[in-house]
Write a structure and sequence with these properties.
Elements lengths: L2 H11 L12 E7 L4 E5 L12 H10 L8 E8 L9 H10 L6 E5 L4 E4 L1 H4 L11
Parallel strand pairs: 3-4
Antiparallel strand pairs: 1-2, 1-3, 4-5
Bound molecules: tetrahydrodeoxyuridine.
Length: 133
């Protein structure tokens, strides 16, 4: 599974979005070392703060199937944005705990724009469990 295939999986996952309030569908796809792909889409709720983002759903989906941080090799996300869709702040915090700091994150949109980054770039100086010691 290469970068383009993973981005296609993220785009396909958008069709699973439940977003009747924002009408903004986001898809994510997480690749594991053994070649499995776990997808997520945003799931909204009429009580707005309960909305869950695509990236977190993908990570939680993988973890509920027994995978963990060390198993993850790449994450892709996609939405109908002008620029490649960028993870929100809450997702950055969760990604920083559950996804390797220097593994590629492929941000994309439906026009075919793509940008590769890492959580290290997206969330420098992250708060972490080490700070609680
Ligand atoms: N959303 C995501 O799924 N991922 C992001 O990184 C940005 C925002 C969702 C949350 C909400 O359902 C909708 O997009 C509008 O904010």
């Amino acid at each position: 599974m290469d970068k383009n295939q993973l981005i296609i999986k993220a785009k396909e996952a958008r069709s699973l979005s439940y977003s009747p309030y924002s009408h903004f569908a986001v898809g994510a796809a997480l690749l594991t070392k053994d070649g499995k792909v776990f997808v997520g889409a945003n799931i909204e709720n009429s009580s707005y703060p309960l909305c869950m983002c695509a990236e977190r759903n993908a990570l939680y989906n993988a973890m509920m199937n027994g995978y963990k941080k060390e198993d993850f090799v790449a994450l892709a996300l996609s939405a109908d944005t002008d620029e490649p869709c960028s993870p929100c702040g809450a997702c950055r915090q969760v990604i920083s705990e559950l996804f390797p700091r220097e593994a590629p994150i492929y941000m994309s949109n439906l026009k075919g724009d793509e940008k590769e980054t890492t959580i290290d770039e997206l969330l420098p100086f992250a708060f972490s469990g080490d700070d609680l010691k």
